[in-house]
Here is the input.
Amino acid sequence: MKTIVRHPGFRQTVLAMAVLAAFGPAHAEDESVMEASVSAGAAYVSGDKADRAIFGQYNGLRDYSGYGLLDFDYYRRNDETGTVTRFNGYNLFNETRELGFLWKRQGNWKLSADYGELVHYNPYSVNSGIQGAGTTTPQVMNLAGGPGTGSDVELKTKRTSLGLALSKWFSPVLQLDLSVKSENKDGTSNFGRGANCPSTTAPGCGFTTGASLGWASLFVPEPIDSNHTQIEARLSYAVDKLRISGGYYGSLFSNSFGSLNPSVSGNLNNAVGTSLPMNAGLQQILNQAIALAPDNQAHMFDLTGSYAFTKSTRANFKLGYTTARQSQDFAGSGLSGAPAGVSNLDGEVNTRLAQVGITSRPMSRLTLNANWRYEDRDDTTPLAVYNTIGGAPFSGPASYWTNQNLSNTRNRGKLEASYQFSRDYRGTLGVDYNSIDRGAFTPTAAVGGISALREKNDETGYRAELRRRMAENFSGAITLSTSKREGSNWLRPNSGPGVTEISDPSTGFLPTAIFMPSLADRTRDKVRLVANWQPMESLSLQFSIDQGKDSFSTPTSYGVRDSKMNLFNVDWDYAISERWSVNGYVSTGKQELNQARPAGYIMGFDNTNTSIGVGLLGKPSSKLQLGGGLSYINDRNEYNQGLDSLASQGSANLLAATGGLPDIVYRRLELRAFGNYKLSDSAALRLDLIYQHATYNDWGYGYNGVPYVYSDGTTLSQQQTQNVTYAGARYIYKWQ
Amino acid sequence: MRFKSALAVVGLALCGLLGSAWASTDAEISAKCVKCHDEEDLTDMSKSAHAVKTDSRTPVCVSCHGPSPTHIDKPADVAKRPSPDHVFSKNGGLQPADRSEVCMTCHDKDAKRAFWGGSQHSSADVACTSCHRIHTNEDRVRTRFGEATVCYTCHKEQRVQMNKISHHPVPEGKMKCSDCHNVHGSVGPKLVKRDSTNDTCYTCHAEKRGPFVHQHEPVVEDCSNCHNPHGTTIPAMLTSRPPMLCQQCHTPHVAGEVGALGGQPGVYTSPGGGQPPAVTGMSSGKNVVNLWQGRSCMNCHTQVHGSNNPSVTNPTPELLFR
Here is the structure.
């Protein structure tokens, strides 16, 4: 193994001055270097909002057809003092603008500030009669004119962040880093509320009849106005063989809105669009407060480090402690009905983390790695009787139970050995271990809609990899891995609080029980093959194949049975000449998931994806640079349904009548091109063109001309075919 | 001109770094390197952190490439000039672990690289120079659009996923892979930046942290139980479409035993066999259309990440209705 000798310290010497003199003319003229550029222009985007739904999700180009373009970059460096100043701005006329400032003396101190905006437009357009969308008191208004006669509601969120960071090197061995970032998020997101009467949780409301409505599914957008502030501090010390640092991370989330209180009155529509009054019980339910995300905080402390026992053996470690709290006042959030004497959750979750790892090269050809991670999450949130179910008018008394503590202990370990057989061969064997112990189920809590839980899972995996260089210009690697996950006895939820451990699932659970894929016994197998080939200096090729399969073993045949994936890729890079190069890729793959629902579907879900990309970059002359790319994606989701043996005749008839669920296909063709023409040493002109053609037939909010209609007539829609052309031109001026 | 300035800076740094006993040797070496490796050979790196003379840590040519005496002064009896002691190219260069060792000689002081040894990339023979370019002013992997492209060199599955309709804004340049991953090593799974997947997600989605009065256990355990953060064709980057996703764990309690949509025959019209339509005016809210369309199960169970509603008034929020 090669070693490098370090020479800390800084001294000007006579010889240094001599070297300086040797380079003197070049250096003396350039004590300070300054470069700056400004680019300004305009862009046109074709189509309307519906055409730009997919294109304009994140780039701020959704609303209008014309945009101003303004970027700038300022860089100054003083070689005498080593001070660097950088100030830049991007997309300044757009709602995704960014500003960055950096001021540093490398190895001594660094100060930076960043301002950024990130916008997300939901691709769906909303037509609704709702009033006060985006507030905490929206009013649901049934559309008298029917679906499509309402107003547009924009679902958009915007993040605005400001960050400051300071680093100070007190000495070559001691460094302090501080940073704070505050981000505001505001807007509205897709949300709603629904209720179906009667139910054991809502015994006071009645069935739907021909005269009144006993259920509703409503579009109620979630109002967002929150702040998330993150503070980080780290003191690092490095001397000789030891590297150690102590760090703090604080995360403070505050929400301006504690609850959402929709006002629902008047008539709503039944399942076939007939306007009916709500029965009294339903209206009362729909007007109840909905809790929004509460304020919460987390504080993390850690001690991290490494120690080089020898040049070839090094250990690393981390000790961490996190406390997460949530004590938002219920009443202050507009939430009533808390258990007597309880004003807030007083939630507290403390997590302890310890990781230790060691890497060693006892011989030049042999590398050994081992690490172990232990994490203990302790949920000490006080328990209170928050839950009531049943009671009059249903038979039997009401049941009561508390909230649940979700603690767990996780262990993760790895042992790995790599051996360099020769310059051309390298083999690796590894063992991985993962376990989670969820602890005893809170005996005073209960779960609903679950067949089975499990306290513990553990998984052991084995990996083998062989890397080989077959020739000077051809190398490859094959990786095989297999893992098996098992767990403790299944737990059957009681009819009231608590669970019962079941030693024999065949008798302890109904034959229609569902066992979760995250808890079930599972075998996972993966193969990966990668090859890199450079047949000539100007051409490089890469091939890769990935295949994987998860098989689940559960006491019944319901839930997820298995899933598979395969992916084939070819990438290439070709230098046509010194001035022109082309690159590209083809990826094709398939994912399969087989899942069964009791007395219902047996679903064979397939996702097939083909992606193709080609890029060209060239410099036809000293003044002109051209580039472009073409990308194509074809993503098909198939929902192949069969019937479980317990399925009803009604289900069989419905499946026969519908023919099953239609495929959902997303296709996108995108052409990008740019040209940069140098007008002079300090000026250039740049033209950017983008053409995007996308089709997407998601049936979630409508199919075959029939929209999904909320109970108040609200509909969401997205244009199935979207075409956008973007043309931007900018003038770039540089100072040096 | 600028490149010579950079080399002058390097040369001065070289002299500053070393004691007088070394200064003459390294200064001479530096001058010799520049004689052959001029601006025609190497790109401008004057803005690079490796060219700052006032930083006592700044390396010089030999710091990384080794003293390389036979490369500089080719022995008379050798036909071909030997390579430098440390070559960082794939062909004829150091093994990946040795290449990284050179960089880590200086860069291991940063706590962000404390877990490089034994990390997934280190074990997979990914060297520092597999991703980073040193002799440049713009290291592609450290640029907003270039980083993902470098990552896709190996992570093809993620390239496919990022191109799907529901994704984080990485292709748009508003996020980078390193916003979630510490590629240099981490105690979290899959090289996530913080100690766990959930803690990493909470750096942007802190509203999901809770704890809540009514919790949803798979949410608390691992966000990736339901989400694929690299991208899917289902809104909210869900791994599977509701109700299928929900029914992977939950016993069904509603109609919609088979998937069907409002615009299909048999749903609002009779499916035949003497059966009534799947959905009529007398249907409850638990009908096939509400189950498979709209927000599916979340049409009613809206608070799928957890609810802080303490109300013990029916309908109590423990089923995440409100």
